[in-house]
Amino acid sequence: MPSPFPGMDPYLEHPELWPGLHHWLIIEIARLLSPQLRPKYLVSVEVRIYETADDNLSIGIPDINVIQPKTTTELITSNVAVAARPTQPLTVNIPMLYQVREGYLEIRERGSQELITLIEILSPSNKRTGKGRQMYEEKREEILSSRTHLIEIDLLRRGQKMPVIGNEIDSHYRVLVCRGNRRPKADLYAFNVQNPMPAFPLPLRSGDTEPIIDLQELFTQIYDIASYDLKIDYRNWEVIPALSEADTIWADAWLRDRGLRE
């Protein structure tokens, strides 16, 4: 069963569902491209691993607000020393290291093993301040200063978008196709929750046939294979992160029209 939404399903941005979707997208893009690129090019799934502190926790902030009780001070006419009442402990969070694994795709020429195209699907850690974004930005700058093509897929509304120059369109989602031989020019596919996902070519060496990545078709297949229709409760769940007021009204009407809400 396909997603009820015309394009990206905002319910799949939920922190508990997004990692699975990210994995499925990596695998299915590789499955799509590999037979079309053989024998000249090889498609490989790679993993970037790093350790970082859990910046999702509110470091040093107590779980509850502390309210100091009102007390009265009494004069004690005694030569006996009185011990002060022990301070009550507060529950706080401390920074913990955890391991992050981020998948991405490489297209390499079989003979020379030269990296021709890099395909990245952005993760939440790439879009918020911290080690994940720092490492990704360094990798991005390295690629953009080379002749390697870059495809950057952003299906997350939350977080800071990757920088582009000359287009200030504020869209929910975007796909950047950046050819090594056209820089600083690049193609930006910007779309919202109301729009189907785009189809775009995979840049290769000049003169080679470029396969088309139809992101909407891939997403529809993944939604069905992963049985997301059985995992998502469209009647009762809230979208995380929340949609704007206008988009919430639109989504509610859209789901009602399809019998998923009363």
UniProtKB/TrEMBL annotation:
<dbReference type="Pfam" id="PF13267">
    <property type="entry name" value="DUF4058"/>
</dbReference>
<dbReference type="InterPro" id="IPR025132">
    <property type="entry name" value="DUF4058"/>
</dbReference>
<protein>
    <submittedName>
        <fullName>DUF4058 domain-containing protein</fullName>
    </submittedName>
</protein>
